[in-house]
Write a structure and sequence with these properties.
It is a single chain. This protein is about 50% helix and about 10% strand. The radius of gyration is 14 Å and the shape is globular. Strands 2-1-3-4 form a 4-stranded mixed beta sheet, sandwiched between helices. About 25% of the residues are buried. β3 and β4 form a beta hairpin. The protein has about 120 residues and is α+β, with helices and mostly antiparallel strands.
Length: about 120
């Protein structure tokens, strides 16, 4: 693999830890982008939404989303979801693995295997 993949997420997330361990166990060097420290660039998030759909990226099961006022959770569309994820990057499903040509949301070893080998 010529491109060094980047894992986007928050360091204390169990799924992030599993994904990073899988990458390390398979000898795949990668970069880590910490949403808590670095946030997420609006242009990058908009590109992800264009590629993957806001429904795939917005973590509606997490405590951050569930804790929002009802008005923020209703009438969701791409623009509203992007605004929520920019304001609260922990609402972005984790991890987002950017392999260069492809983005993968979530961690499933079989998908990482087929995408990174």
């Amino acid at each position: 693999m010529t491109n060094r993949p980047t894992v986007y997420g928050i360091p204390n997330c169990d799924t992030i830890k599993k994904a990073r361990k899988w990458l390390e166990d398979h000898g795949i060097n990668h970069d880590f982008h910490d949403y808590k420290k670095a946030g997420v660039e609006e242009q990058r998030l908009r590109a992800w939404v264009g590629e993957l759909g806001w429904e795939t990226l917005l973590n509606r099961a997490g405590t951050t989303f569930r804790g929002l006022p009802e008005a923020d959770k209703t009438g969701l569309d791409a623009e509203k979801a992007i605004a929520l994820m920019l304001a609260n990057p922990s609402m972005i499903k984790r991890p987002v693995l950017d392999t260069g040509p492809r983005r993968i949301v979530g961690f499933k070893p079989e998908i990482y295997e087929s995408s990174l080998s």
